[in-house]
Structure prediction request, 105 residues.
Amino acid sequence: MTLEQFNTQVLQSEKPVLLEFTGSFCPGCSAMERVLYPLECEYGESISFLEVNADQEEMLNTLLHVQTLPATFLFHNGKILEQHRGFWPKNELEAVIKDALSNGE
Prediction:
């Protein structure tokens, strides 16, 4: 994802966006994929699930102060609603997603 794609697909999105920063040598990122896949299956029509390869996107890493992987952000209307560094357990992440959807954030 380039900076231009970030601006259009994340900051200008009309629906919430869950953005995950991953890396090629990141065991926690693999674990997060097992959390995100079922959530995307369930909430994918209401929330966009996007991924950034942190190995390739230094500008986005700097912009969002990503220093630890995985790093997950929930955006809506151009602002960060929630962010989490490291593994995010499914039940906690799902609660955040449900809250964002129920509050119409």
